[in-house]
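The passage that follows is intended for readers who have already worked through the single-chain material. We present the inputs for a multi-component assembly, then the predicted structure in tokenized form, and finally a short commentary. You are encouraged to pause after the input and sketch how you expect the pieces to fit together before reading on.
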Amino acid sequence: MASIARCLRSARPSTLSRLAQTPCVRSNWRPASLRAFSASPIRDIRKYTKDHEWIDLNADKTAGVIGISEYAAEELGDVVYVELPEEGKEVSAGDAIGAVESVKSAADINAPIACKVTGINLALEEKPGTINQVPEDDSHGGGWIAKVQVGEQGVKDFDALMDLEEYKTFTGSEHH
Amino acid sequence: MAFVRRLSTSLTNKPTLFSTPYIPSPLRSQNVAGITRRLFSAEAVSHPSNRVQVYISRASDPYLNLSIEHFLLQKSPPDSVVLLLYTNRPCIVVGRNQNPWVEINLGLLKQSGVVDSHGAKSDVQLVRRRSGGGTVFHDAGNVNYSVICPPAAFDRDKHAAMVVRALSALDIRGGSARVNERHDIVLDVAAPSSPDKDGAKKTQTFKISGSAYKLTRQRSLHHGTCLLASPNLPLVGPLLRSPAAPYIKARGVESVRSPIRNVGLADNAAFEEAVVAEFGAMYGNADPEVIEEGEAAGILEDVQVVAKGYAELKSPEWIYTQTPQFTFSTHPTDEDPRARPPLPDDLPSDFRATMTVRHGQIIDVSGTSLLESLNTTYLHHVTDWKSKVGSEPVGKWLNGLFGVGEN
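Having made your guess, compare it with the prediction:
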């Protein structure tokens, strides 16, 4: 998503202030059994790529949810179609796994980390505008794009991504 | 014409950009030990020093031109800017996420009287491009421009404005060109009617160029058409009106209809020269590399990535099954309450049907029982509905809607 996000900035006001105010909506999505067996507090960790995707990784680092950032969604303009990833597909970090069309532009969605697609948000096909409304919502009805299985390489890739603070700084610097 | 001469000589006089010994010239045959080898390669196109690249393809195969374009998008250096100009033989090009059954009169497409550059009757090819946006018509009177640049430099209007400047330099008489709010280039022309009561001249606006974009992680591509002197414009409207459209509710992208016209410039080369000059003014001059038709065919043979992209673009899977999910229904439904055009009188009076098609495949059918056997059928595999539905009038009607078989 980097492409659009970078280029349309002059035409659109920064979303940073919004980003800062909008509470991140987190779902309860995670294997239920984890709760019972883990003593440590269980929280998904969300990280961001320079290409403006986000990924939540569950506490035992085996599964995640992928979406595009609020910043990117704002910069894209009205999303008219979401080409969802193929279920079962295994990808490396940076591989195109789907695409978003807005304002005559087909923009690739890239895998933030090495992973295998285990589920897709079919509702986006019918209501692509959800991406504009709640791009960082990983609950039912949210704008998340895919659920993924994560292996060793994926965890390594994840460590290299930006946390929210770093991402905010990064998108801020894109405005120079 | 000076420009044409310069272009042809540039093939023998090495363009400056490619003159260092380290960079193989990408688009030229070379005799190595008696074997003709083509050197259009990722190595040359992607060489970091090739910061400004300009190509003019003389191939007229739309699938090949789009594949060369895609190759340049994938392989040119991340910080380079690339201009590619090409002119296709007659074809209709739908956007990445569009529905050919909704956008095109496929029956007319097969039998239309479109003419090629020599005035001879020509087929119209059906193409799905990789970029977004709506459906357009191409022929020999339409020159396509394509600019590939770093995403940071991407702006939806920037290169449409470049083409407007090129048109201004050509002193187009018909009217004045500008980029509109849809990122298309339009021509404002004085209406033939008399001035209104305030004495102000009325203007009419026509689209002459449509834009579409593709954004990858590293690169952005903006390509557009420019209708210079198409002899086929009266056919474009009917070709882009599908008889099936009133019965189909589709996900994905629907085209926005605009009145079109020619710029009125019979000289494609003059337009090419003007666009190359404006591109040069923005990014620094680079001598255009002309890809002759035979060379383009050689690229297809020799460059695996191009061959792969070409095969994909030509495949029925890409053209048809990439279509976003849609539902065909003969009567108004909750999801699609539009009034339908009256069905033909010879259909059974109780005939009704609803088909859901996903990735080009019928995944759900309801209504009259004779249609049940259609489940799991790929729509583009049906060459005659009469044998599929076991009813002459129903089959004939569906043949007409989907543009297959005999009507």
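Commentary: Chain B has 13 helices and 18 strands. Residues 1-39 of chain B have pLDDT under 50 and may be disordered. How closely did your sketch match?
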